Amino acid sequence: MSAIEGLREKIPEPAKDIRLNLQSVLESAVLSPAQRFGVALAAAAVSKNAELKKAVFEEAGKGDAAQKVFKEFRQVSPGRMSPAEFDRFVRDTVNFLAYIGEPMQLERQRLGVWVLAFLLLFGILAYLLKQEIWKDVK
Fold it and tell me: Among 19, 33, 65, 110, which residue has the least CB neighbours within 10 Å?
């Protein structure tokens, strides 16, 4: 992946770990070429870097086997929802998926308040006890 290699070389030294991870994934003998392309495509989509997306798509077209390459989404027909309804639907879906991904989060947050209150109370009591014990040693 020469275009991607060029981008990988542009990664600054403080982000050396990202460069090394990218190299190990793209040169992996374990992953098939299609899987490596999938990883590169996912990374490009998450990074929101137009230059990286372009490089990934260019490299995908140079493969040995002829393959269809995803270029862009096109709206086939107009949607049935208004923009406000669509935004509400997406927000509800994302909230549902976040809840399903970690259903104990609400209970953990509720319990966390009590734990912090206990630690604060215990810290105050420990400080007062320390003052009482060490009051003669000044």
Answer: 65
